[in-house]
Amino acid sequence: MILTFLGLFQLFMMSATSHGSSTVADGGQTSKSTEAEPGTSCGWDEEEEENLEDIAADIYDLIKDIRDPEKPNTLEELEVVFEQGVKVHPLQEGSDRYIIRVEFTPTVPHCSLATLIGLCIRVKLDRSLPQKHKIDIFITKGTHSTEDEINKQINDKERIAAAMENPNLKELVERCVADHDA
Asked: Which residues contact 51 (CB under 8 A, 6 or more apart)?
């Protein structure tokens, strides 16, 4: 049954086309030159660094409990997501808008559910965070055989919207992102 959902999801992801997407699928810079990197001489102070680290920790807390589509484990338990994989940078200096970058590592280099896991992370963050932030989700470089294609899919709004229109796929994503507090 999971493979049927996966096949439907991949069909949606492959058939949707991107129009004007500005996301760079290879994990490179995705913003204008106004983006500041931590540690640069943009007038950052330690308090702002700590604030960004706190935001990254909060984002990690949102995604760590997402369930794997096939196993009863969370993405944190399977070490698919990890604290160092969440980075937050201000969109502009002094702004309360951020670029949030999440990297995840599939359990195996040919994981057939990597796209679905990325979709679950995207849905959870889109629902939990204000729309004023830019969210980029990438597979950790060198950890999946088709990472470039998957990165492109999970960062394309039209493909995500098309995938979430499928009721079976939507139900599967809902199960993965549901809060499972016991």
From this structure: none
